[in-house]
Write a structure and sequence with these properties.
- The structure is a single chain.
- This protein is mainly alpha-helical.
- 27% of the residues lie in helices and 6% in strands.
- It contains four helices and two strands; from the N terminus they run E-E-H-H-H-H.
- It has one domain.
- The longest helix has 15 residues.
Length: 133
């Protein structure tokens, strides 16, 4: 399956550091937060592990909503297409290479539930300083 991915998609094998602790982690002791670092952000984001949002309630820079807002911001400046009121799923249909990948994932039964892509961008006219922080 992985060898048949169309360009520009490819299998990434990130080099990760092994955990030094040999103690097994149990779900009962799982932290209620997670921390995300981004090279473009001055500070790490502390996210609520249950909601996936920042402590302030704002979406993370790494969530689909924020990524979709960045895509819409760029598309409004680069393309004559009207992308403001598209669902996330409709936006993905605009990319033929993604559709080939989607079919391969579907055949391998690796797709997420369809309802996860049925949202519009709530960030209507965001300040690019916050989008690309």
């Amino acid at each position: 399956f992985i060898s048949s991915l169309p360009p520009p998609f490819r299998l990434h094998k990130p080099i990760l550091a092994r955990a030094a602790s040999t103690e097994a982690r149990t779900p009962a002791r799982a932290p209620s937060f997670s921390v995300c670092w981004s090279v473009t952000a001055p500070l790490p984001e502390v996210l609520n592990a249950m909601t996936g949002k920042l402590e302030s309630g704002q979406p993370s820079l790494l969530c689909k909503q924020s990524m979709f807002a960045r895509w819409q911001y760029l598309m409004r400046r680069l393309s004559p297409l009207k992308v403001l009121h598209l669902l996330y799923k409709e936006a993905k249909l605009l990319c033929p290479a993604y559709q080939v990948l989607h079919l391969l994932y579907n055949e391998a039964k690796l797709l997420c539930p369809a309802y996860q892509d049925l949202f519009t961008c709530e960030l209507v006219d965001p300040d690019p300083r916050f989008l690309f922080a």
